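Researcher: Go.
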Amino acid sequence: MEKKKLIPHAFRLTLPVMFGYLVMGCAFGIIIHTKGYNFIWAFVISLTCYSGSMQFVLADLLGAAAPLPSVALMTLAVQIRHVFYGLSLVDDYKKCGKKKYLMMQQLTDETYSLQCSLTVPDGMDEGRLRFAVSMFDHLYWMAGCTLGAVAGALIPFDFEGADFAMTALFVVIFVEQWRSFGTHVPALIGAGSAVVCLLIFGADGFIFPALSAATLALLALRPVLSKKTKEGDENA
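Model: Structure:
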C-alpha cells in the first residue's frame, strides 16, 4: 500500500523538473547529434554524466576532440558546486541505506532543490521517497536526451533559445521554495552571495566564491534557521 502511494507522490513532486528536463534534454540530444554522435551516445552520456551544464560543455569538448585531462579539469570546475550541495544532505541520505551511493551520482541542481524541500507524508518511508525522487529526475533527463538525439536525426530543428528552459526551471523551483519554506533567509543569503561575488569576481569566476560564501553562512546559521523553519511549518 505504501509503495502505491509513494510512487504517485514522488511523481507529483518531480513534475516541474520533468517538464524542464524533457525540454533541456531534447536540446542536448539535438546538439550532440550536430556534433556527429547518435542517440546511443546521448543515452550513455545522460546515464553516466547526468549534468545539464556539463553535458552541454561536454558536447563542445567532444566536437573539438579535447584531451581527457582537459575534460576532467573542466568537469571539476563546473561540477564542484555539488560538493557544497552534498554537505547539507549527508544526514538525509543516511536514511536511504545503500541506495545513497547511486543518489550521490544523481544529485543535480534541481534534485537538490527537491530534496531540500521534500515533504514526507505520515507513514511513508523517507529514504524510499528520496530515492524515488532522484530516480524520476534521472529518468526524465535520460528520456529527454535520447529523444532529442533521435529527433535531431529525423527532423531539422532550430533549437536556438532552448537552453533557456533550464533558467525557467530554476525560477520555478526558487519560487516554490520561497513559498513553502518557513524562512526566506537561505534564499536571501544565496541571492546576496551571488550578487556580491558577481560584482567582485565577474561572470566567469563568481560561482565558486558565491557557493563557498553561501555555504559557510548557512552552516553558521543552521541552528537558527532550523528553528525558524520548524516554527514556520507549525504556523502554516
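Model: The mean pLDDT is 81.
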